[in-house]
Write a structure and sequence with these properties.
By secondary structure, the chain is mainly α. It has a domain of about 120 residues: Methane Monooxygenase Hydroxylase, Chain G, domain 1 (Up-down Bundle). Helix content is about 85%, strand content about 0%.
Length: about 190
C-alpha cells in the first residue's frame, strides 16, 4: 500500500479518535451539566414547597385565631343578649310591687342581676364599639337608678312613662346585639 494511503488512513483514524474523544467529552459534560441543573431544580422545588407549606401553616394559624376570636365574641354577646332580654322585665317586676310588699331581699336579688349584667357587658366590651359601650352604660345606669328609686322597702311603684323609656332603650340594645350575633352566626 502506498505511503500516502497509510498516512491518510492513520490521519482518519487519528482524526476520528479526536472527534470521538471530543464527542465523548461533550456528551459527559452535557450529562454533568444536566445532572447539576436537575439537582438545583429539585432543591428549588423543595424550597418552594417548604415556603408554600410555611405560608399555608401561617394562614391556617391566622384563620384558627380569627375563628376562636369570633367564637369568644359570639359567646360573650349571646351571654349579654340573654341578660338584656331578662333584666328589663326583672326591673319592671321589682318596681311594680306594691309598697307594703317590697323587701330588702328583692333589692338584693335585683342588685345581683344588675351586677351580673354589668360584668357580662365588661367581658363583651372588647367586642363592642365605643358607641355601643356608651349606650350599654347609659342603659345600665338607667336600670340602676330605677332600682334605687323604686325597688326596696318603702319605695313607690314606678310610673308607666319610666317603664316605656326603659323598654325603648332595651329594645334598641337588644336589636343591635341580635344583629351582631346573627352576623357572627353566618361565619
Amino acid at each position: 500500500m502506498p505511503e500516502w494511503v497509510t498516512q491518510l488512513f492513520n490521519g482518519m483514524i487519528g482524526g476520528g479518535a479526536v472527534a470521538g474523544l471530543v464527542a465523548i467529552l461533550d456528551f459527559r459534560l452535557r450529562e454533568k451539566w444536566k445532572h447539576d441543573l436537575q439537582q438545583k431544580l429539585e432543591a428549588y422545588k423543595v424550597s418552594l414547597i417548604a415556603e408554600a407549606e410555611a405560608a399555608k401553616a401561617k394562614q391556617d394559624l391566622k384563620k384558627s385565631i380569627a375563628l376562636r376570636y369570633a367564637e369568644i365574641e359570639f359567646e360573650r354577646l349571646v351571654e349579654l343578649e340573654k341578660l338584656f332580654s331578662h333584666i328589663p322585665s326583672d326591673v319592671v317586676r321589682a318596681t311594680q310591687i306594691p309598697i307594703e310588699r317590697k323587701t330588702a331581699d328583692q333589692t338584693r336579688r335585683l342588685t345581683e342581676k344588675l351586677t351580673e349584667t354589668m360584668r357580662a357587658s365588661e367581658r363583651a366590651g372588647m367586642f363592642l364599639s365605643e358607641d355601643m359601650k356608651h349606650k350599654i352604660r347609659d342603659f345600665l345606669r338607667t336600670l340602676i337608678q330605677l332600682a334605687q328609686d323604686y325597688v326596696g322597702p318603702q319605695k313607690p311603684v314606678m310610673p308607666a312613662d319610666k317603664r316605656a323609656e326603659m323598654n325603648k332603650l332595651a329594645n334598641e340594645l337588644h336589636d343591635v346585639l341580635r344583629g351582631r350575633i346573627r352576623e357572627l352566626g353566618k361565619l
